[in-house]
């Protein structure tokens, strides 16, 4: 499922539409099948996603270690339809309004947003760091990442585990987590798609960091690839 199916409110980026029949209700016998696009209040049809997704939140504080961080990681909600996604998106605090130190994680259900999870253990993440002056635009960028993930928009979608938006005192950070780290072709393909999704300038660099390198060093400070 590509992001051509994802409905996005009008922004600086081209709007996209989620649902092949957004205007015309279908009929089945005597029952009228109404989509959310025809009647946002009284719809009775939901559009399933290819995968189920879970949103997580944490704000561990300045002195958190791995154990205390895990305890602060909270599962918010799981969803598997387009309509449920938009219901959640419209009722959670926007990233720009979160306290510094906070993180939202959106991962395929069954994968925890932790290095140690089996789906992440041999993988890594593309990291995009953005200045605090990005302001409320971080909300739009995070939306684009979520839509690209749940819409199966990446060429190697099966290698994508999820995305993270991190709020820090002096910057924002968006990360895209992957199952693999040692296939340069696949990693760079997804990285280029990520840059395009965020409409980054050619001279804006993104970095790929391996989780195994982070486990060894205690932090993600070694870049495998850059674009």
Automatic annotation (TrEMBL):
Gene Ontology MF terms in the entry: RNA 7-methylguanosine cap binding; translation initiation factor activity
Keyword RNA-binding: yes
Highest taxon listed in the record's lineage: Eukaryota
An annotated GO BP: regulation of translation
Pfam families named in the record: IF4E
Transmembrane region(s): none
GO CC entries: eukaryotic translation initiation factor 4F complex
Keywords in alphabetical order: Initiation factor, Protein biosynthesis, RNA-binding, Translation regulation
Keyword set includes RNA-binding: yes
Family: Belongs to the eukaryotic initiation factor 4E family.
Name the UniProt record assigns to this protein: Translation initiation factor eIF-4E
Lineage, broadest ranks: Eukaryota, Fungi, Fungi incertae sedis, Zoopagomycota, Entomophthoromycotina
């Amino acid at each position: 499922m590509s992001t051509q199916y994802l409905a996005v409110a009008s922004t600086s980026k081209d709007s996209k539409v989620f649902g092949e029949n957004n205007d015309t209700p279908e009929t089945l016998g005597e029952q009228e099948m109404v989509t959310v696009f025809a009647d946002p209040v009284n719809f009775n049809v939901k559009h399933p996603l290819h995968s189920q997704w879970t949103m997580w939140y944490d704000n561990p504080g300045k002195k958190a270690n791995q154990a205390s961080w895990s305890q602060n990681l909270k599962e918010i909600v799981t969803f598997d339809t387009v309509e449920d996604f938009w219901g959640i998106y419209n009722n959670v605090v926007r990233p720009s309004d979160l306290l510094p130190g906070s993180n939202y994680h959106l991962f395929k259900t069954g994968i925890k947003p932790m290095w140690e999870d089996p789906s992440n253990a041999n993988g890594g993440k593309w990291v995009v760091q953005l200045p605090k002056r990005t302001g409320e635009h971080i909300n739009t960028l995070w939306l684009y990442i979520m839509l690209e993930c749940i819409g199966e928009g990446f060429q190697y979608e099966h290698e994508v585990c999820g995305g993270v938006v991190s709020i820090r005192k002096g910057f924002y950070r968006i990360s895209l987590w992957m199952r693999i780290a040692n296939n340069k072709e696949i990693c760079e393909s997804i990285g280029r798609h990520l840059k395009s999704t965020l409409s980054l300038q050619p001279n804006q660099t993104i970095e790929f960091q391996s989780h195994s390198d982070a486990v060894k060093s205690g932090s993600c400070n070694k870049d495998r690839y850059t674009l």
